[in-house]
Amino acid sequence: MRRGEDFAVAIRRGDRAGRRTLVVHMKRRDELDTPPLVGFVVSRAVGGAVTRNLVKRRLRHLMRDRLHLLPRGSLLVVRANPPAASARFERLAAELDVALDRLLGRRGSDPQARTDGRR
């Protein structure tokens, strides 16, 4: 996702699921002919440029494996909170899974059982 309008729509009009290290906003759209779009927000509150880029790369890598879970045409924004800077990769994965499960309506999974980011 690159357009500011898409970020604004997902954040202002979409559903939200927050965790300690990140917040995920998702807006479902009726445009079934387009793939889901994902954007990342990592502010200066997370850390310096090197830290922000590291967090963004980790989140991008995690979302790559979960992209198939998103409905077609949806807009998803992953916003990193300051604790994401010191969180281990496995913790980011687990919290992203819990947030996505909540947004996608899958309540059957136990967030404590998944610490390695796998299903």
From TrEMBL:
<dbReference type="GO" id="GO:0001682">
    <property type="term" value="P:tRNA 5'-leader removal"/>
</dbReference>
<protein>
    <recommendedName>
        <fullName>Ribonuclease P protein component</fullName>
        <ecNumber>3.1.26.5</ecNumber>
    </recommendedName>
</protein>
<dbReference type="GO" id="GO:0000049">
    <property type="term" value="F:tRNA binding"/>
</dbReference>
<keyword id="KW-0378">Hydrolase</keyword>
<comment type="subunit">
    <text>Consists of a catalytic RNA component (M1 or rnpB) and a protein subunit.</text>
</comment>
<dbReference type="InterPro" id="IPR020539">
    <property type="entry name" value="RNase_P_CS"/>
</dbReference>
<dbReference type="Pfam" id="PF00825">
    <property type="entry name" value="Ribonuclease_P"/>
</dbReference>
<dbReference type="GO" id="GO:0030677">
    <property type="term" value="C:ribonuclease P complex"/>
</dbReference>
<keyword id="KW-0255">Endonuclease</keyword>
<dbReference type="GO" id="GO:0004526">
    <property type="term" value="F:ribonuclease P activity"/>
</dbReference>
<keyword id="KW-0694">RNA-binding</keyword>
<keyword id="KW-0540">Nuclease</keyword>
<comment type="similarity">
    <text>Belongs to the RnpA family.</text>
</comment>
<dbReference type="InterPro" id="IPR000100">
    <property type="entry name" value="RNase_P"/>
</dbReference>
<dbReference type="InterPro" id="IPR020568">
    <property type="entry name" value="Ribosomal_Su5_D2-typ_SF"/>
</dbReference>
<keyword id="KW-0819">tRNA processing</keyword>
<dbReference type="InterPro" id="IPR014721">
    <property type="entry name" value="Ribsml_uS5_D2-typ_fold_subgr"/>
</dbReference>
<comment type="function">
    <text>RNaseP catalyzes the removal of the 5'-leader sequence from pre-tRNA to produce the mature 5'-terminus. It can also cleave other RNA substrates such as 4.5S RNA. The protein component plays an auxiliary but essential role in vivo by binding to the 5'-leader sequence and broadening the substrate specificity of the ribozyme.</text>
</comment>
<dbReference type="GO" id="GO:0042781">
    <property type="term" value="F:3'-tRNA processing endoribonuclease activity"/>
</dbReference>
